[in-house]
Amino acid sequence: MPEDLDGALAALRPLLLDRRSLVRAVASGRRRAEHPRWRRVDLRPVDLKAGRRLQVVATADGAPSTSNHAYDGDAEKAVDELLAEPFGNWHVQTTTQTLQLRVTKKGRAQVSRTAEGGVQRTEHDREREHLIDPGDPLFRTLGAGAAKRRQVDAFLRVLRPAVEEARLPADRPLRVVDLGCGNAYLSFAAYRLLSEDRDVQLTGVDVKAQSRERNSRLAAELGWDGSVRFVEGAILDAPVDPPVDVVLALHACDTATDDALAQALRWRAPVVLASPCCHHDLQRQLKEAGPPPPYGLVSRHGILRERLGDVLTDALRAALVRMAGYRVEVVQFVASEHTPRDTMLRAVMADDAAPDPAVRAEYEALVAQWGVTPYLQTLLTDAGR
After folding, report:
1. Does 372 share its domain with 229?
2. Nearest partner of 324 among 349, 361, 344, judged by Cα
3. Half-sphere exposure of 250 (CA within 13 A, CB side)
4. Crossing angle, helix 302-323 and helix 280-289, to 10 degrees?
5. Kind and range of the H or E element at 48?
6. Residue 378 falls within a domain, yes or no?
7. Range of the domain at 251
């Protein structure tokens, strides 16, 4: 049941300041119509030469900033300032329990607790922590080498804060759908990470029967076949019933990415992560329509026209998703040496305002200038959105 927010935050304070039992804490997201100074803040105890400190890593739009606070000095002040920020979610893990606090639309606290603690690691100069240990049986079962593990880790570092930022139900399992899942490396990794904190039901959809058969066999080998299932079908006909909380579409070719985005918007999924592959549809339209002046110099060369088409396609996709009521970022989720298709559209449903009409005006001006009709626009128009 929702409870008083001030009281719930006050109950977090001693957990955050307990130097002996805090494993880690994460503050993320935002409350309705409010904006914290940072997108995400991570806290954990660290051991320095001067003694144990509370380390605070704050991430806004640029590189994270790190500060270390003495427990007998300014740690209390730092914690009080963070608790006063309008974060929408707090995740706190100690050696004996895990607590999840979500602020509701009405400004109340929805708190869930489990008796699952963690192991405190306070080394300051430790190697970068993997979100899934490289020795996890998952990677052995999937046959994933070092390059694939790095790609998985980079993807999870985009997925986790998006899920923490979104307003997701706490009274039922989290429902995740991977559209065009292929060999499902990232499907399995998403389930492995997200199921650490709550029950998860994951469905992978792919048009190929061999993908369904292979992935179902691997899910059984991992002992996950009760929560992870794979089905055969086209994205627009995905045999999945709402509600859906998280939609993944990773390297779906050409307009399959648009199919996945259209499905996600139809389901009103709170979290959408889409990493596009090729962009043939708009490339064809650009070639047929010809460039508006003075962009002939850019589109004259095939390689530049291709790159322009990639950028234009994803910019228009991002605008359409924003117009549907989402906060959208387009990010590089993995270094280009691991995959040339390293762009990801990260969308989290907004709940505090109507879409900005200026976005629609800019979108309409851009498609009119270039004489193109994005396939996603066609899908959304046909669906009445």
Report:
1. yes
2. 349
3. 27
4. 110
5. strand 40-48
6. yes
7. 137-382
The domain spanning residue 350 has which CATH number? Answer: 3.40.50.150
Residue 76 confidence (pLDDT): 96
For residue 91, is it within any domain?
yes
Residues 85 and 143 in one domain: no
> What's this model's pTM, rounded to 2 decimal places?
0.70
What backbone phi and psi angles, to 5 degrees, belong to 107?
A: 80, 20
Is 129 inside a domain boundary?
no
Residue 3 per-residue DSSP state: B
Beta strands across the sheet bearing 109-114: 65-70, 51-59, 40-48, 22-28, 89-94, 98-103, 109-114
Q: 90 by DSSP, 3-state: which?
A: strand
The count of domains in the chain is 2
- Asked if 245 and 365 sit in the same domain, the reply is yes
Left, alpha or beta for 10 (phi > 0: left; psi -120 to 50: alpha)? Answer: alpha
**Which amino acid is present at 333?**
F
> Could you tell me if 330 and 345 are in contact, meaning their C-beta atoms sit under 8 angstroms apart?
yes
DSSP characters over 200-237: EEEEEEES-HHHHHHHHHHHHHTT-TTTEEEEES-GGG
Sheet holding 246-252, edge to edge: 228-232, 200-206, 174-179, 246-252, 271-276, 343-349, 326-332
What residues contact residue 180 under an 8 Å CB cut-off, 6+ apart?
A: 205, 206, 207, 235, 249, 250, 251, 252, 253, 256, 260
Q: How many CB atoms lie within 10 A of CB 7?
A: 10
Residue 252 shares a structural domain with residue 360: yes
d(CA 301, CA 327): 34
Let me know if 170 is exposed, middle or buried by CB neighbors in 10 A (0-12, 13-18, 19+). Answer: middle
Residue in 357, 374, 361 with CA at minimum distance from that of residue 309: 374
pLDDT averaged per 10 residues, the chain (length 385) = 92 96 90 87 92 91 83 95 94 90 89 83 66 84 86 89 86 94 93 88 95 95 93 92 94 85 96 88 86 85 86 93 92 57 85 76 94 93 73
